[in-house]
Amino acid sequence: MLKTLITQRLASLGNLPADDVTQGDRARDAGDWAGAARGYARALEADPGKAPIWVQLGHARKEQGDLAESEACYRRALAVDDGDPDTHLQLGHSLKLQGRRQEAIDAYLIALLRDPGLSAARRELEALGIADGDLAQVLRRSSLPPAGPVRGMATRIFGGTDVAAGDRARDARDWPNAAFHYARALEADPGNAPIWVQLGHARKEQGDVAGGEACYRRALAEDDSVADTHVQLGHALKLQGRREEALDAYFAALLRDPAFAAARRELYGLGLSSTDLVLALGRGSVQAARQPRPPRLPRALLTLNGLFNGDQRPDGNGPPVLLEHMVRLEPGAIGVYVDIQCVPANELPGNVMVTLAADGHVLDLVAQESSFGPHVYTWRGACASPGDYRFTLRGDLGAGALVRYAEISLLDPASPRIAPVPLFEELTAPSLGEIKNLIIGTTGVCNASCIHCPTNKLAHTARTSSDMPMALFRSLLEQIRDNRILVEGHISLGLFGDGLTDPHVVERARLLRTQFPDTPLHVNTNAAAYDPARHAALRDFATLVAVHIESLDPERYARLMQPFRLKNVLPKVHRILADMPGVAGITSPTHRENLGELAAIRDHFTGHGVRLPHFSRLSNRCSREDMYRELSLAPAAGTCNQFAAADLIVDWDGTVLLCCNDFQRQEPIGNLSTTPLLEILGGEKRRRLFDILRTGRWDQSATCRSCKFDCHHKIPELVRDRLASA
């Protein structure tokens, strides 16, 4: 076709010097592009108004690698005759080779408008991301453009089709084409803030993070009110290592939308605490949260809680030693506060005393009368010589007694009261806009009766429980959504019952994944109820299916996990691991009966694809003191702070609890069947328990009073030692 066009055009040359054109053609046909260029150039000196020869010279220059000169020749040809579609096509080729895609598309588009049947132009446009459907729309609605420059022609006639093309490219993760189309759409409508955001995404995904930042800033210049645009700017700044600016951007998003979960997650990820955020929101600036807090009195110098102290160590110098620790004292009034957990409550300790000694010098401490009850002991003294002191606590404790909390503080001279210094004093009330973990008792039914668990032994068990109605479950999710409450941590299905005994567990998991696409979702089970036909689909929704197993010894398993038998349940555990690779895991409470099996449990299940079983700490579940004493390895008193009140725990019938260890449901704070969620979260019962945890008055809570967990230091050490020595 090209040779035919050339022949037709040369026939119209008239008085051109035949020798120069002929020499150019012969050189062209022989591939001698330099000779062709000389011949065509001499011919054009004689008659510069012949467009076809400008095209031929353009070809010769292009083949010589001089793309800029080639482009100039094609443009000179169009200046003489703008109506030839093939010349526009050749210009498009030259522009494409120079990497100027948008201008190339302009040229190809006008070629197609000049000749809708020009298949070469259509192919080039489609190769550059212009869909055939978009071309058809353009051809239907566009008239031939007037003669003249072609730059910007495609932008003028495509209009909104570029946004659609950009969206298609974005969804296909074809970021170069997405960026191209969004950029061209913005030429037509530069005030379109959402498209600036989309262009920013495309630039960022191509690795041009600075370009992405520039686009997000342009979007904000058009519309500063959209929280998500500030978040996207924060992402771009964070990727560039500009932490302080990223903090400002994320906080700007939160000021515009205080319930924006993504902004909160990023601020926490960059090191802001919940308290920092409370301060910043109250003062309107993230800078306020980063200012060093002025020293306050009283101020804790040493805090000891949640530690194993069950071994009383006689040393011949008085009552047995319960705790010893070094503390650096500062000059001033010193207060010592000791809380002894007594289970039962009437088994009070005897001979409780403390010393603070350094280099033979013993601080003079005077016992004070405590207003917290007979289980709390306080002393006051004065430190004149700052330095490192050894704190020693002694006493005679009963079998169920533990040191729950010990604190040494620098006191306010104006206040004689000795009490625990609240953690994060500014956090004085629970948040209504966020919860840490969402724990849902989708069923109260458990098919097991493990010996250290209250389920199926105390009130509110499988004999009196059922499954959470789907209407109640949906209402819970809708209230979280409608009140724009952030779930900061994870969501868990399974509270006092087994997650797989719930007939709706897969449907619930699907609904949760739809509403909370980025939130970890856990399902807890002992595996006995596992049915592949019903439950294997959980692998598509759950982040973790945690399988509880305490022993691989058949007799021990039968004792610990009554009424199950290992031979019946272990194959189901293996099937879950095979059906849900990377999702299913093993969790095993560590205690006296299975301590010797830890390595065997690890080896068995890592052989079935589990990365590493989770060996957890044993708890008395705020009720099973008898079995806890028998099984515990390193008993310690529960001493949760106010952040424990950030969890939302909902049992199968809508009962809302503050603690997932409140198996006897002694302290409900409301019921979703009768009270809206926001009213429960802001209610007096939740505030009271929050304040108990904040101020360390655990004995005033029926649940906290008897709570015990194995020591968070000792158990990991025991597990590491056992696994390392196996």
Question: Would you kindly provide a brief summary of this structure?
Answer:
The protein has 726 residues and is α/β, with parallel strands linked by helices. It is built from 30 helices and 22 strands. Helices cover 43% and strands 16% of the residues.
Characterise this structure.
The protein contains 30 helices and 22 strands. The chain is an alpha/beta fold and 726 residues long. The strands form five sheets. It has a nine-stranded mixed beta sheet. A hairpin with a 4-residue loop joins β19 and β20. The termini are far apart.
Q: Could you list the spans in which at least 5 consecutive residues all have pLDDT below 50?
A: 1-8, 10-16, 143-151, 459-463
- β-sheet strand percentage: 15-25%
Largest sheet: 9 strands, mixed
Which descriptor suits the 3D outline? Answer: elongated
Helix content: 40-55%
> How many helices does DSSP assign?
30
Kindly report the average pLDDT value.
86
Q: How many strand units?
A: 22
Report Rg.
38 Å
Q: Which secondary-structure class do the elements indicate?
A: alpha/beta
For the record, give the distance between the C-alpha atoms at the N and C termini, rounded to a whole number. 81 Å
Spatial strand sequence of the major β-sheet: 17-16-15-14-13-11-19-20-21
Name the descriptors:
5-stranded antiparallel β-sheet; 30 helices; elongated; 9-stranded mixed β-sheet; 726 residues; alpha/beta; disordered N terminus; 43% helix
Layout of secondary structure:
Layout: H1 2-11, H2 18-29, H3 33-46, H4 51-63, H5 67-80, H6 85-97, H7 101-114, H8 119-127, H9 132-141, H10 153-158, H11 161-171, H12 175-188, H13 193-205, H14 209-222, H15 227-239, H16 243-256, H17 261-269, H18 274-283, H19 286-289, E1 299-305, E2 321-329, E3 332-342, E4 350-358, E5 361-362, E6 366-368, E7 376-383, E8 387-396, E9 401-410, E10 434-435, E11 438-440, H20 470-482, E12 486-487, E13 491-493, H21 505-515, E14 521-525, H22 532-535, E15 544-548, H23 554-560, H24 566-579, E16 584-590, H25 598-606, E17 614-617, H26 625-631, E18 635-637, E19 648-650, E20 655-657, E21 668-671, H27 677-681, H28 684-695, H29 702-705, E22 708-710, H30 714-725
Parallel strand pairs: 10-12, 11-13, 11-19, 13-14, 14-15, 15-16, 16-17
Antiparallel strand pairs: 1-9, 2-8, 3-7, 3-9, 4-5, 4-8, 6-7, 18-22, 19-20, 20-21
